[in-house]
Amino acid sequence: MGEARDRYDDIGRSYARTRREDPRIAAGIRDALGPGHRVVNVGAGTGSYEPRDRDVVAVEPSATMLAQRAAGAAPAVCAVAEALPLPTGAFDVAMAVLTVHHWTDPAAGIAELARVAARQVVMFFEPLHTHGFWALEYFPEARHLPTEQDPPAEAFLRAQLRVREVRTLLVPHDCADGFGSAYWRRPEAYLDPEVQAGMSWLALLSDEDRRAGTERLRADLADGTWMRHHGHLLDQDSYDGGYRVAVAW
């Protein structure tokens, strides 16, 4: 996960501002964690979605992300998912939230989750849904990023873990966490450089591709093209952006 460490040292600087925990997403993740009290959060980032009422240890390889963890957050270890410096069976639950697609060796990382915890809870995105998102019309080059082309999704997780359930997490129209399709009903947000910096699928684009896509979107918003093509979304309260939670034990 050295590559992921370098990536987030570079693009993770705005996470504390743009990737705030959404309470509805948090409720779905907390419910999936089950009753276990000892929790390890792998690929923990700035600490979003870590339960406050349990004993949590965070694992994160990026110094940039670790520096943005709030005062009073769970203790954090600087390490990679593929080699957790933790004893076998030390935790009741291992959680990983929108991180597996950035791991250098996802299979090795998932095996580590299973080694250190009896239950595994993984939030991921299903590319068949994600790649239908309207914003990709403006930033089509994102489909070709290594992290987006063939991300580890449900079939992969079922091959690695004893997955008992896969739950859908709908994205609310006013989602507080600025992940990939969080602004599905607020298209102007995708013009904001700080919002873009907090989304790996935009931050990893070349400056030229990101600038060109931004200007295409800006023009379509100005002349009403976006509204004609996607205005129906304004009638929805939530959106299936392909986000799922796999629960395994």
Descriptive report:
A seven-stranded mixed beta sheet has the order 3-2-1-4-5-9-6, sandwiched between helices. It is globular. The model is unreliable at 5-9 (pLDDT under 50). The protein has helices spanning 2-11, 15-18, 23-33, 63-66, 106-116, 127-130, 146-149, 154-160, 193-197, 200-203, 207-223, 225-230; strands spanning 38-42, 55-59, 76-77, 91-97, 117-125, 163-168, 171-172, 238-239, 243-248. The protein is of the alpha/beta class. It starts with a helix and ends with a strand.
Assembly of the depicted chains: single chain
Q: In angstroms, what separates the terminal alpha carbons? A: 24 Å
Q: Widest sheet: strand order? A: 3-2-1-4-5-9-6
Unreliable runs: 5-9
What share of the residues lie within helices? 25-40%
Question: How do the helices and strands follow one another from N- to C-terminus?
Answer: HHHEEHEEHEHHHEEHHHHEE
Number of discrete helical segments: 12
Alpha-carbon Rg, integer: 18 Å
What structural class should be given to the helix and strand makeup? alpha/beta
Q: Write down the overall mean pLDDT.
A: 92
Shape: globular
